[in-house]
């Protein structure tokens, strides 16, 4: 309802994202939590839930957080791939798909 009131979302012909900032502030954190549930079902281990969500929302760089990035890179290769795919899904694919009208 908030997205519709703020004209950040459009209902017709289907739910459409009109404001990327709204996605960043309100939708992405919730979608990251849902994605965390999926990753845990795939047996992702080695990071806390908060660190996993933080990585998916804003992937750290070696310059910004070298120790955190070392912990991520110490995960099994498949887990690193899942995290990177989740990051891309939340930051590129999902907002792109939600902005498509036709």
Number of extended strands: 2
Query: What is the helix content?
Result: 55-70%
The share of residues in extended strands comes to under 5%
Strand order, biggest sheet? 1-2
Distance between the termini: 22 Å
Topology as H/E string? HEEHHHH
- When the domains are counted, the total is 1
Shape: elongated
Mind telling me the C-alpha Rg?
15 Å
Number of helices: 5
Average pLDDT metric:
93
- Poorly predicted regions: none
SS-derived structural category? mainly alpha
The biggest beta sheet is recorded as: 2 strands, antiparallel
Written description of the protein model:
This protein is mainly alpha-helical and 102 residues long. It has one domain. The chain has 5 helices and 2 strands. A two-stranded antiparallel sheet has the order 1-2. The longest helix has 23 residues. The radius of gyration is 15 Å and the shape is elongated. It starts with a helix and ends with a helix.
SSE layout and pairings?
Blueprint: H1 2-5, E1 9-10, E2 16-17, H2 20-41, H3 49-57, H4 66-73, H5 77-99
Antiparallel strand pairs: 1-2
Question: Can you summarize this structure?
Answer:
By secondary structure, the chain is mainly alpha-helical. It has helices at residues 2-5, 20-41, 49-57, 66-73, 77-99, and strands at residues 9-10, 16-17.
What key attributes describe this structure?
single chain, 5 helices, mainly alpha
């Amino acid at each position: 309802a908030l997205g519709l009131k703020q004209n950040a979302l459009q209902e017709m012909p289907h739910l459409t994202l009109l404001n990327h900032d709204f996605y960043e502030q309100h939708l992405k954190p919730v979608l990251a939590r849902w994605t965390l549930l999926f990753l845990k079902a795939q047996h992702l281990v080695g990071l806390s839930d908060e660190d996993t969500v933080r990585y998916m929302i804003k992937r750290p760089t070696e310059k910004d957080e070298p120790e955190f990035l070392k912990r991520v890179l110490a995960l099994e290769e498949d887990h690193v791939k899942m995290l990177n795919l989740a990051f891309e899904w939340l930051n590129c694919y999902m907002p792109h798909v939600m902005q498509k009208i036709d």
